[in-house]
Structures are given as structure tokens and as C-alpha cells.
Amino acid sequence: MRVLIVDDEEKITNVLASYFEKNGDHTYIAHTGESAIQIIDQGLLDMIILDLMLPDMAGEDICQYVKANYDIPVIMLTAKISIDDKVRGFKMGADDYVVKPFHPKEILVRAERLLPMSHKKQVITIGRLEIHKDERTVLINQQNIQFTPHEFNILLLLAENPKKVFSRDDIIQKLFGLDVDINPRIVDQHIKNIRKKVDGDYIQTVFGLGYKINEKVKEQ
């Protein structure tokens, strides 16, 4: 499980990170909302542990951003204990809500309970299309379709984040890293090849912005 822990208190982030890493998970830490958004946009996360009281922005705003663009469970942390605060948190899209102080093991258990709700399923189904993550195979109408590694990674990236539009630069950064010099038009060629192979409108072009999964196809 890849977990982002967002809290302005270094002691809290370090203790939580220690518990998750001992459990075999990989952790990212952010002490501000801005740095949290950067991590969220740069990598594919399985879980977000989010404090509501951050120095630069409200945790509720970050939660809303996540839910508008990704399918990632969010556990909110807060010192606010009123029922109105809890209801407000859930209305913002939180999947769970924990009041401080808490034991780190409680957060770990809650995160593992939510993980099956994550978009990180081993088989992703989009209409007649099946993406098998472990085997790195793509089936359409139960027929295996041959994909290059880059084509598979692009399709998987879009499928795991069906609400988000990815620009060419976004896709290049996620596939190759930040410090690369690659012609962004190579992404267009990969998308063209994917479309030929899956024979359907599974990938939508959002004019001036980039590419995303066609949610109308996803719902069929």
C-alpha cells in the first residue's frame, strides 16, 4: 500500500510513517497542502491520511480535490470532535474520520479496511475491456490484446484515475520521471496505437487539456 500522510506536526507524520513502513507499506509525507497536492499529482497512491488543519489550506479543500480527480480513499485527522464537524468531513468526501489523539495502529487498521474500496484492483473492467494488472495483460471480449509496455502503462494510468484528465507532460512524467527530454507528441502516437488495438472510444480527448477514460464507456 502506498500511503500519503499529510499533517503539519512532524511527530505525527513520523510515527504514522514508522507504523506503516513496519507493516511493509511505502509512505510519503507532506507538511503543507501545496506539497500534498504535488505528491498526489505525481504518483499513484492507494491511501491518503489527511489532517484538516494545515498552515496553507484547509484539509477539506484537499479532500474535495482528491475526490474530484482520483479514486483514492481519504482518512481525515482532526482535533474537532463535534458531530457537525464529522458530518462536514464526510460530506467533503472523506471515507473515514479520526479524532486526535489516536493510536497509530488504529489508523493502520482503518486504512487496511478501506483499501478494498480503492481503485487499486487487480482487474479493472471498462465496458468490454479488462486490464489485468498482475499479468500486465489486456482483454477485450475475452481476447488477449498485445500491448507494448508504454501502451499498457498509459492505459492503466488512465483507467486507475477515470475522473482525471492527463496532459501529455503528465503522462511523460508519470511514465519516465521528471528529468527527461521526450517529445510530448510521442504520447499522441501511443494513444493512437491503443485506440486501434481496443477498437472503441475508451480514451477521450479533452480538447486543449489531454486525455482521460471515457466514463460513458466505463459505465456500460
From TrEMBL:
Alphabetized Pfam families for the sequence: Response_reg (PF00072), Trans_reg_C (PF00486)
Modified residues (4-aspartylphosphate): D51
Residues covered by the OmpR/PhoB-type domain: 121-215
InterPro entries: CheY-like_superfamily, OmpR/PhoB-type_DNA-bd, Sig_transdc_resp-reg_receiver, WalR-like, WH-like_DNA-bd_sf
CDD domains reported in the protein's UniProt record: REC_OmpR, trans_reg_C
SUPFAM superfamilies: CheY-like (SSF52172)
Name of the protein in question: DNA-binding response OmpR family regulator
